[in-house]
Amino acid sequence: MPANRSPLPRRGLAVLAVLPLLALAACGYGSEAKDVPANQKVASGAKKIDGLDSVKIGYFGNLTHATALVGRQQGLFQKELGATKADYATFNAGPSEIEALNSGSIDIGWIGPSPAINGYTKSGGRSLKIIGGSASGGVKLVVNPKKIKSLKDVKGKRIATPQLGNTQDVAFLNWAAEQGYQIDAQSGKGDVTVVRSDNKVTPDAFKAGSLDGAWVPEPTASKLVAEGGKVLLDESDLWPDKKFVITNVIVSQKFLKAHPKAVEAVLRASVRTNKWIKANPDAAKESANKQLEADSGKALAPAVLDPAWKSIQTTDDPLAATLNTEAGHAVKAGLLAKPDLKGIYDLTLLNKVLGAEGAPKVDAAGLGTD
């Protein structure tokens, strides 16, 4: 998504590239096997894929990363990887996950479009490939209804976004520009004051009255509603067919070239997880929440979980055309030099998996590997 995504800016954003990697989700085996749920253990007699001891998978502790949360909790990644151990790491920001991918600390990751664009363009197209979709939707503008009663009331107010240049930041700046508001993208000052605030602290700041609203992903949006906020705008309403990419699957190009069978196994698990989520929405919601609790130590309350879950759609389609549009928004906001995204997608293995599952193939919107 889950949230937390940063495109390549022309200035000032490099400092965000080194953010702390959270060691929240190491899945233990061997001496720690007693702590591993039965469905996440290596099956007896299973064989390693590509001779690998492990595949390192990264994701965020957000509901917009539902595929990763549910796939881990249900043991579906481990099932497809056989005797190759599925190792996990969770992140709270896109730049830190890209750093982990570049350093080899993870091999495959669930991440938003903006850090994927950032990582690809910053490396000259050599670091990563987007190999699948994961989620659409789940982003809202939530406001204090006492201070903001209509969209025109946003002018002059303090609106939070998760991070300078992240996907929600870019989306809000683009929306504000379409309203005719003038905002300096770097400082956040102008007709609206943009406050870059970590999703973990935004609900408390909103409750304290230091923020008038926030353009944020789930479950932060529903947490704000639980604190008395009102959904003023659902970003899905701004997109054709109400669909836009919020979470992709990326892989290190080096790992993809060396271990395509392992990548295919993870994609197969992803596709089967999304199929299970759609067939079992209530059980999937509880499974995602259980994994969030395991990762963070705290589950979401039903008042937050239920509306947040309803606003997110899992998808195998990376919705490539919308990623290109989001990149254009970042360019218009002055946060991204016009990028060459040709080749950012390699959907070969995903379409192979989809074909085997009897599902239609997906398209890279002209941005795929020839």
TrEMBL record:
Molecular function GO labels: ATPase-coupled transmembrane transporter activity
Keywords: Cell inner membrane, Cell membrane, Membrane, Signal, Transport
InterPro entries listed in its UniProt record: ABC_SsuA_sub-bd, NrtA/CpmA_ABC-bd_dom
Primary location group: membrane
Cross-referenced PANTHER family: ALIPHATIC SULFONATES-BINDING PROTEIN-RELATED, TAURINE-BINDING PERIPLASMIC PROTEIN
Family of the protein in this entry: Belongs to the bacterial solute-binding protein SsuA/TauA family.
Name of the protein in question: Aliphatic sulfonate ABC transporter substrate-binding protein
Native species: Streptomyces griseoluteus
